[in-house]
Specification:
- It is a single chain.
- By secondary structure, the chain is α+β, with helices and mostly antiparallel strands.
- The chain has three domains: 1-93 and 140-207, no CATH class; 219-302, Helix Hairpins (Orthogonal Bundle); 311-458, Heat Shock Protein 90.
- It contains eleven helices and eleven strands.
- The protein has helices at residues 6-60, 66-70, 78-86, 118-122, 155-204, 219-268, 275-302, 315-332, 352-369, 415-421, 427-437, and strands at residues 94-98, 103-105, 125-127, 135-139, 311-313, 336-341, 348-350, 375-383, 386-393, 441-447, 451-458.
- Helix 6 (219-268) runs antiparallel to helix 7 (275-302) and helix 7 packs parallel to helix 11 (427-437).
- It is rod-shaped.
- The model has no long low-confidence stretch (mean pLDDT 86).
- The protein binds adenosine-5'-diphosphate.
Length: 466
């Protein structure tokens, strides 16, 4: 394990926290046990002293010679030794007062023989039977300072040693548990990060679409999900880019090879320049020019740089303009081209030239797929927050498999037929880009064999276009 590894850092962090916790708890509990134990022993010694004083008074029926009992030099007095042996340390200090409140014993010899103040007497503990009050004992302040030392082999010392040992073992145990949990958690946390690091390298090497395993639902899990999403999006975008390049090359090649073939034959003198040949050359040049224009429109829309000359336009005027442009062709194909749009509909905010391009694409598609005797209807109606414009035809319709893809670039449902007609497969993609640049939307529905309907929703003139 290298020092730079996240796993090691996490393990050390958990170990450090565990260790600090264990040491703090051990120190606090150890100190508290010692002081509480000392207090307990002092209480015990005080009780023993009170019992001893009471016993002394009962035995002698006076306080005479009581100073020997508490004196530091027992002078072989068995009674005093018996009491001393019961004590944990030196006897507790304080003031002994007789039944009249006169001081008998005190740390301060000057007070002996004097009467004690009632306030101090109130802190005193009565000695002797209830019917015959012998006096009071007033203990000095608690706790004893310094604390009473414990004797090396005493049960008290053994008790404290046991407690210390137990605390030490607890601290070692807690530290070990912290270490084990630290190792497990550190590995759990660092594994997805290692996976992601490896996956980023793989994607950077060009293996787009590479996925990582999502191991959890937390932040790391969400990071893995986002990475997978990004990787698939990159792969899809890359595929689309390649496909588009291939499609552009393919679509440019056909008219270019026709132009090349004819011009070479003309310059070699193998072919005479007739009006028909000029017509063919012109048609291919126009087709190339349209293709380049379409690609330019799409790339501008992609870059968000499609210039729109937005102005309020009445829906029926937009539709009438389109029908006027295609009426001759519709009549020639024996297809009825009609408009149904109320004059009362409010204006929409559009670029009229661009919208004419969109509607023109839809109507020319409809004319291409609608047989003689069919009908093409251009409708406008009020919708929520805008105006709905529809181009309905009674043509061949679109197969359900093709319907989700028809707005994709270079998508042609019927490849052979389209190639013959010289269409690019960009018409609907451009229509969508233009409509979306207006802040609108476009969709298609169709029943194969019965016809198709293209629906555009456009914003009203008083709604700002997004
Ligand atoms: P193209 O330039 O080839 O017409 P479009 O993007 O305009 O490309 O249309 C894509 C495909 O959608 C067409 O190839 C055609 O198969 C299908 N399509 C579009 N409009 C209609 C329609 N009105 N009826 C049936 N099919 C349609």
């Amino acid at each position: 394990m290298r020092l730079r590894s996240l796993t090691l850092k996490l393990i050390l962090a958990f170990l450090f926290v565990g260790l600090v916790g264990a040491v703090l708890v051990a120190g606090f509990v150890g100190e508290r046990t010692k002081s509480e134990f000392d207090r307990f022993v002092l209480n015990r010694d005080q009780t023993a002293l009170l019992e001893e004083l009471s016993h002394y008074y009962r035995a002698t029926n006076s306080w005479q010679g009581v100073d020997q009992l508490l004196s530091n030099s027992p002078d072989n007095q068995d009674e005093a030794w018996g009491f001393r042996r019961r004590l944990h340390g030196p006897p507790p200090t304080g003031t002994l007062v007789d039944a009249n409140g006169v001081v008998l014993l005190s740390q301060d010899p000057a007070r002996i023989g004097r009467k004690i103040s009632p306030e101090e007497l109130a802190r005193g503990i009565p000695i002797g039977p209830r019917d015959k009050m012998a006096g009071w004992f007033i203990f000095d302040d608690l706790p004893r300072n310094p604390p009473a030392p414990t004797l090396p082999d005493s049960p008290e010392q053994a008790f404290l040693d046991n407690v210390r040992h137990a605390i030490f073992m607890g601290a070692v145990g807690a530290t070990l548990v912290a270490l084990v949990i630290g190792v497990i958690l550190a590995q759990t946390l660092s594994r997805p990060i290692k996976d992601l690091t490896a996956a980023t390298k793989i994607v950077a090497e060009g293996n787009l679409g590479h996925q990582v395993k999502v191991r959890s639902k937390d932040e790391l899990g969400r990071l893995a999900t986002s990475f997978n999403q990004m990787s698939s999006d990159l792969a899809r975008a890359n595929k689309q880019r390649r496909q588009m390049t291939a499609d552009i090359a393919h679509d440019l090649r056909t008219p270019l090879s026709i132009l090349l073939g004819y011009t070479e034959a003309l310059s070699d003198g193998k072919l005479q320049a007739t009006p028909e040949i000029h017509k063919v050359l012109h048609k291919e040049a126009v087709h190339l020019s349209h293709l380049v224009d379409d690609l330019r429109t799409l790339s501008l829309a992609d870059a968000g740089e499609l210039k729109l000359n937005l102005q309020p336009c009445l829906p029926y005027e937009l539709l009438n303009r389109t029908t006027a442009a295609y009426q001759v062709q519709a009549n020639a194909q024996n297809v009825a081209l009609t408009v149904a749009a109320g004059h009362e509909l409010p204006p929409v905010l559009v670029d009229p030239e661009r919208m004419a391009q969109v509607l023109g694409n839809l109507v020319s598609n409809a004319l291409r797929y609608t047989p003689a005797g069919g009908q093409i209807l251009l409708l406008a109606a009020a919708a929520q927050n805008g105006i709905t414009v529809q181009v309905q035809d009674t043509g061949a319709g679109i197969a359900p498999n093709d319907l989700p893809h028809i707005f994709n670039r270079f998508y042609r449902a019927d490849e052979s037929r389209q190639q013959q007609q010289g269409e690019s497969g960009l018409g609907l993609a451009i229509a969508r880009s233009i409509v979306e640049a207006h802040g609108g939307s476009i969709s298609a529905s169709s029943t194969p064999g019965q016809g198709s309907t293209f629906t555009i929703v456009l914003p009203l003139a008083d709604t700002p276009a997004s």
